[in-house]
Amino acid sequence: MATDYQHSIRRRALEILGEQESDVGDQLYRTLRLLARYRSTLVANTLFARGGDKVRSGPFAGLAVPRQSAEGCLAPKVLGTYESELHPVIEHVAARGYRTVVNIGSAEGYYAVGLALRLPQATIRAYDIDDNARRMTRELAEHHGVGDRVVVGGEFAHADFQALDPETSFVFCDIEGAEVDLIDPSRAPNLARLDMLVELHNLPDIPTYQRFMARFRDSHRLAVIEAGSRDIRAFPELRDLEHLDQLLAFWEWRRGPTPWLMMSAIRS
After folding, report:
1. CB of 136 within 8 A of CB of 66?
2. Measured between alpha carbons, how far is 140 from 116 in angstroms, rounded to an integer?
3. pTM for the whole structure
4. Which top-level group of life is the source organism from (predicted)?
5. Labelling 137: which of 40, 104, 109, 116 has CA 20 to 30 A away?
6. What is the mean pLDDT of residues 70-96?
7. d(CA 117, CA 185)
């Protein structure tokens, strides 16, 4: 018997296809994305059923993944392939031993709680403007026994950067395009001294990001991190799935390239 969620997906697909004023190609594309996102949640449910809710691989292996996401995909997080191009950065942050990590745009706490487990000496400050995301982060932190070290907040402001010690702090920022306004040393001078990892969005407007990176060329060593490949063969539990489902197990729901910018402050 179909669930209410399945019925809602079907209704939405029919609504898109029935839009009289829309381009047919655009209708088909939006319907494909809708159905692919739905199918990817079924793949995630299969992974939960087969191996539980623990991350299978990568620097956060063993982290419990909430069975609902505050934002975006689930299956890659369960597999541990989510943003796997950042795994070396996570290892660097853990080895560097920062005392404070600020996670701006924390969603359900995947990075905030994962980093709390990797840095037992650190306080993780997790910020998200979504109430549900903050609730999920608190619950995940409590589940893993790090609720005392994961401090959850709402909107992060320019003035908040000024309270961070550049020698012991790291900033991890993923805020869907708002980074251009927030990560601005003219409004928060302490940014010129902080180590940061920032996801870049809205890349069709390339000049915007050239100007963004220019802000830090004199104060930081800059490294752009592009998306990497994924290896289906590394996960035996995927081998009996249809090839489309195998691909969806790695799909991160992105509409286009969202590279990361690693910014390491140049210290005298």
Report:
1. yes
2. 11
3. 0.92
4. Bacteria
5. 40
6. 94
7. 30
